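Re: the pair you flagged

First of the two:
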Amino acid sequence: MIRHTTCAVLLTTALSTLAYAAPPFTENFNLGDANWRFSTATTLTPVASGGPDGSAYVSRTFSFSSLTNPAATSATVFRAQDEFNSSGVAYAGNWASLGVNEVSLYVRHSAPEPLVFNARFANPANFPGASYFSDPVPANVWTPLTFDVAAASPQLADPSYEGTSYGFVMSNIGHMQFGVNIPAALVGSTTPFTFDLDSVSVGVVPEPAAAGLMALSAGAFGLAVRRRRSSISTPQANAIVS
C-alpha cells in the first residue's frame, strides 16, 4: 500500500509539472488581427483561411524600400504591444517568475531567398529588451520557429540585454516583435514581399529532469500495479491447479 501511495504521489507530481508546461498564451488570429500591428503601427491584413492548419492568419505585404530607413538591414514586421491592446495583452507580464522559456510561431514569406527571422521581447516602454535570431527560413512555405528565451539561450543576439539583465527585461514584458534580417542583396528593394504569421505561443517547457521524472514515475506506478495484480492472481491460479 505504501508503495502504491508513493508511486501515485510521484505520478501526480510529474503530471502536474506537465500541465504547467502548457503554453500560458496562444494567439491563432481566428477572430481577426487581434490588434497586432506592422512596424509602423499600420494594421495587418487578416486572412480567413490558408494558415499552417488551414485556418486564419495575419499578413502584410511591403517593400524594404518603403521602410522609414530604406537602407535598414532589418525590419520589424509584426508587433504585439500593450498600448495597442494586442491579444488583450494576455501575453504580457513577469515571464521570469512564470518560468517562460519558449516562444513559438509559424511564419511564411515570399522573398527570393531564405530569410533569418528575429524576435524581440521588451518592457512596455520598448526598452530594454532581448533579441533572438532564427535559422534561415525558406520562401513560400509555412515554417515553425521556436525561440529559446531562457537565461542561457544560444539564440540570444545581445547577452548584455541592452545593458541590463535577463531578470530586468523578462520581469516586465509588454512588447513582442517579430521581423527579418534583410540580406545585402535585398536592402532597399522596391519589390513587394508578403509576410505571414500564425499560432504565436508563449510557453513553459519542462526541463529534461522534469520530463524524466514524469516518465520514471509513470513507469514505477505501472510496475507497482502489475505486481499488485500478479500477487492477487497467483493464489487463484494455485487454487485451480489443486
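Second of the two:
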Amino acid sequence: MQRVVLVHGIFRQSRVFRKLALQLQQRGYTVHTPDLFHQFGALGLVELAQQLAKYLDTHLDDGEPFDLVGLSMGGIVSRYYVQRLGGIDRIRRFVAIASPHFGTWTAYGFPRKTALDMRPGSSLLADLNRDVTVLDRVQTTSIWTPWDFIIVPARSCCLPVGRIVRVDVFPHGMMAWHDRSLKAVVEALAAG
C-alpha cells in the first residue's frame, strides 16, 4: 500500500488537506497529515522540519518508503527534511505545491523567524539550493500557478530539478483545494 505524507503551510493546519486526503484515500493511499506548530512564527523552518522528522520516525518507522507532499511553507520544511535530515533515503516522490524555493517578497510582511527563512536570499534557502540536485534521486514535481500573489515572484515555486507543472488556479490559498491543482498532485504521485 502506498503511503503519502501531506505537510501544510504557514497559516493552515492539516485540515487544509481534507479534500486531497479523501481523493488519495479513495485511490488506495494511506495518508498522513501531521500538524506542525511554529508558535506564531517564533520557530524557524529547521525546527518545523525536526517536528516533521519526529512525526515520521514515530508513525512511519518501519523503513518502508513513502511519498512527501508539501504545500507552500510545507514544501520548504519537507525539502529540509529530505535534504538535511535523511529523508532522501526514505521517500520515493517529492511534490511541492506553491512553495517558495527561491523565497517570496511577502515574507517581509511577517517579521518572525518562520517567515525570515522564506525571504529571498535567506541563509536557509541558499543552503538548500546549493545542492538542490540531490532531489534528482527521487521523482520531484513542482506545482505552481502564475496567479500566486503570496509567493512573489510566482516562478519562485519552480525547482530547477524534476518536473514543473503549471496550473491556472487563483489565488495561492486555492492550491490545496482546486480540482486542477489536486489533479496535478494525484498525477505526480501516480507517475513512474
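DSSP finds six helices and six strands in the chain.

-B.
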